[in-house]
Amino acid sequence: MIEPRMEEIFALANKEVRKNHFAELLGGGIVLTGGTSLLPGIAELAEQVFEMPVRLGSPRGVGGLAENVADPRFSTGVGLVLHAARQDTGNGIYTDTASARPRQRFDLWNWFTSRF
């Protein structure tokens, strides 16, 4: 019941990726995150539809609550917190992979407790 819907969603996403010429920019393949990415066989289904490598992604480079949030279900939330922290501090507490500066671990627990 769920598999045909997921296949349909992936097909629509694949159509958009190819229509906008992003496929050639995805040399490393597709990264699935979110709770749905934990469905059994979802990565294999996505590989069939997108015809490229697919892997599951989870938050990295986060200290404090790292073991609690190192799960694909929390990718969006952690990403939003990291983005807010970068905007909040303005001192490069977290740098992008394209940056020449090394990544620093971001302590999620301290960030939350200092604000709430």
Give the structure's gist in a few sentences.
The chain contains five helices and four strands. The protein is mainly alpha-helical and 116 residues long.
Written as H for each helix and E for each strand, in order along the chain, the element string is HEHEEHHEH
* Coarse shape: elongated
The main β sheet shows up as: 2 strands, parallel
In terms of DSSP E residues, the strand content is: 5-15%
Write down the Rg.
Answer: 17 Å
State the secondary-structure class.
mainly alpha
**Biggest β-sheet: strands ordered side by side in the sheet:** 1-2
Mean pLDDT: 78
Binned, the helix content reads: 40-55%
Low-confidence stretches: 92-102
What is the tally of helical segments? 5
Based on the structure, what is the oligomeric state of the protein chains?
A: single chain
End-to-end separation in angstroms reads 42 Å
List descriptors:
single chain; 116 residues; mainly alpha; two-stranded parallel sheet; two-stranded parallel ribbon
Q: Your description of this structure?
A:
- With 116 residues, the chain is mostly helical.
- The protein is built from five helices and four strands; from the N terminus they run αβαββααβα.
- 47% of the residues lie in helices and 9% in strands.
- The strands form two sheets. The protein has a two-stranded parallel ribbon with strand order 1-2. Strands 3-4 form a two-stranded parallel sheet.
- Helix 2 links the parallel strand 1 and strand 2 (54-56).
- The longest helix has 18 residues, at 2-19.
- It is elongated and about 45 Å long.
- The N and C termini lie far apart (42 Å).
